[in-house]
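C-alpha cells for chain A. Residues wanted.
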C-alpha cells in the first residue's frame, strides 16, 4: 500500500469507537490464529495497534503475553481507569490482579501448563495448538474465578476474595469469569451480528433479538455483555433500548423494567451520564474540538429516551435522565455565560490615552474566544433538549449585536487616532473579523476585512500628501 493509503486506513481506524477497535482487533487476531488471510489481517492489525497505543513503535507479539491471550474475549468490554462501570463492562486495571491470583492461588497448575504450551507453540509455530491451549486455560480460569466469586453459605467468602485484590477487582471477578466461561456463545453472537447497521428499525430489532435468543446469553451476568457487543454496530448506542421495548412489547417503563432486557435502559443511561461527565471535563480544560459531536450524541440520546420510553419523573430511570439533563445544562450554562465578557474584554473601544505603548492582544486568547463563540453556536443547535434554550439564544443574540457594532466602530477608529496605538487597534479589528466569521459567516467577515483595508488606506493618504 502507498503511504497515502496507509494514512487513510489509520485515520479511519482512529475514528472508530474504542469498543469497535477492540472488537476489530480481536477478529483479526482470531483470523491470524486460524491461518486465514494472514497478510491482510497482520497488516491491518499492526496499524490498529499503532492507533490504539498511540505509537509507531513495534508492538510485542501478543503470543508472548499469556495474560493477554487469556483475557482476549474481554477486550470489547474493557474500560480504562477505576471509575464506576456499568453492566457489560470490566475495568482493564482488574485483569492483572486476577491473573496474579490465578497463577498464585486460583489455578496455578493450569497456568504453568498453559505457559509451557505457549513455549511449545513459539518453537513449533502451530497456530491450531495455540487456540487449543488458550481455550483450555480459559475454561480452567473461568471455573476458578466463578467458584471464588460466587457466595457460599457459611463460607469464608470475603476473606478469600480479599486475597485477590481491591473492591473494584472483586466487583469485576464474576463478570470476568462469566465472559471466559461463555466465550463460545459470545463468539457465535459476534459472528452472527452485522458489522454495521445503518438503521435500527423493527426488522433489524427483530433480527438482533433472534440472534440474542440463546439460553446462555439470557442470564443476568451475560446479557449485558451480549448487548455491549451489539451497541458499537448501531447507528447510535442509545438505540439499544429498542430491544428492551421490543421484548416488553410496550414502551411503559414498568413493563420494560420487568424484562431481562431492562438492563439495556440502564446501560444507555449510564453511557449518557459518562458522556455528560466527559463533556464537563473537556469544557473545564478548554478542549472544544469534540464538543459538537458530544453534544449531538447527548442531544440524540436524551431525546431518544424521552420520546421512545414512557418514563415517569419520579421513577429511578426518570430521575437519572433528569439528573443527566441538569448536569449537562449546568456545565454548559456556566461556560456560555462567560463568553460575552471575554469578547467585550478583547473588543472594548478605548481612548488613545488608555492604550499603553506596545500593547498587544494574545492570539491564543483570540483563538480560545473564537472557539467559545463557536461553542455557543453549537449549543444553540441542541439547546431545547438539553435545557439551555433561554440562556443560549439570549447569549448568541447579544454576541451578534455586540460584535457587529464593535467591528464597525473599530474599523472606523482606523481612520484616525494616534499612530502609536494603531497597531493595537489593528489587532482588535483582526480579532473582531475573526469573531464575525464565526457568527455571520465568511462573506460578512470578508466584507469587514475589505472595509478595514479601505479605512487604513484613507487614513494614510493625507500623510503622503503632506
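Reply:
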Amino acid at each position: 500500500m502507498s503511504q497515502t493509503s496507509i494514512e487513510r486506513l489509520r485515520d479511519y481506524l482512529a475514528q472508530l469507537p474504542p469498543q469497535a477497535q477492540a472488537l476489530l482487533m480481536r477478529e483479526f487476531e482470531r483470523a491470524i490464529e486460524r491461518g486465514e488471510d494472514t497478510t491482510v489481517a497482520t497488516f491491518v492489525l499492526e496499524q490498529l495497534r499503532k492507533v490504539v497505543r498511540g505509537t509507531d513503535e513495534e508492538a510485542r507479539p501478543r503470543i508472548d503475553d499469556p495474560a493477554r491471550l487469556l483475557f482476549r474475549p474481554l477486550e470489547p468490554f474493557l474500560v480504562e481507569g477505576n471509575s464506576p462501570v456499568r453492566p457489560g463492562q470490566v475495568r482493564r486495571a482488574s485483569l492483572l490482579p486476577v491473573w496474579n491470583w490465578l497463577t498464585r492461588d486460583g489455578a496455578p497448575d493450569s497456568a504453568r501448563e498453559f505457559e509451557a504450551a505457549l513455549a511449545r507453540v513459539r518453537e513449533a509455530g502451530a497456530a491450531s495448538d495455540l487456540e487449543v491451549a488458550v481455550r483450555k486455560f480459559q475454561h480452567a480460569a473461568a471455573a476458578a474465578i466463578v467458584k471464588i466469586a460466587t457466595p457460599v453459605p457459611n463460607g469464608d467468602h470475603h476473606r478469600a476474595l480479599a486475597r485477590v485484590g481491591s473492591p473494584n477487582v472483586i466487583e469485576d471477578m464474576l463478570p470476568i469469569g462469566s465472559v471466559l466461561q461463555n466465550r463460545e456463545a459470545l463468539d457465535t453472537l459476534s459472528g452472527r451480528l452485522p458489522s454495521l447497521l445503518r438503521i435500527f428499525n423493527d426488522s433489524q430489532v427483530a433480527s438482533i433479538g433472534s440472534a440474542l435468543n440463546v439460553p446462555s446469553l439470557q442470564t443476568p451476568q451475560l446479557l449485558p455483555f451480549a448487548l455491549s457487543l451489539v451497541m458499537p454496530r448501531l447507528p447510535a448506542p442509545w438505540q439499544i433500548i429498542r430491544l428492551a421495548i421490543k421484548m416488553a412489547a410496550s414502551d411503559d417503563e414498568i413493563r420494560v423494567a420487568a424484562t431481562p432486557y431492562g438492563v439495556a435502559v440502564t446501560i444507555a443511561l449510564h453511557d449518557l451520564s459518562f458522556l455528560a461527565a466527559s463533556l464537563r471535563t473537556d469544557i473545564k480544560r478548554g478542549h472544544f474540538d469534540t464538543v459538537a459531536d458530544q453534544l449531538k450524541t447527548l442531544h440524540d440520546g436524551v431525546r431518544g429516551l424521552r420520546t421512545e420510553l414512557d418514563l415517569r419523573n419520579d421513577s429511578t430511570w426518570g430521575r437519572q435522565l433528569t439528573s443527566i439533563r441538569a448536569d449537562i445544562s449546568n456545565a454548559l450554562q456556566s461556560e456560555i455565560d462567560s463568553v460575552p465578557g471575554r469578547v467585550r474584554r478583547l473588543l472594548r473601544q478605548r481612548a488613545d490615552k488608555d492604550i499603553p505603548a506596545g500593547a498587544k492582544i494574545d492570539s491564543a486568547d483570540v483563538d480560545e474566544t473564537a472557539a467559545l463563540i463557536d461553542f455557543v453556536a453549537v449549543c444553540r443547535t441542541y439547546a431545547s433538549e438539553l435545557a439551555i434554550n433561554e440562556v443560549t439564544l439570549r447569549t448568541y443574540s447579544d454576541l451578534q449585536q455586540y460584535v457587529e457594532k464593535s467591528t464597525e466602530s473599530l474599523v472606523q477608529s482606523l481612520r484616525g487616532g494616534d499612530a502609536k496605538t494603531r497597531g493595537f487597534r489593528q489587532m482588535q479589528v483582526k480579532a473582531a473579523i475573526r469573531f464575525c466569521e464565526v457568527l455571520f459567516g465568511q462573506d460578512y467577515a470578508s466584507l469587514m476585512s475589505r472595509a478595514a483595508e479601505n479605512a487604513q488606506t484613507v487614513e494614510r493618504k493625507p500623510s503622503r500628501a503632506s
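The two ends are 67 Å apart (CA to CA). The first strand starts at residue 78 and ends at 79.
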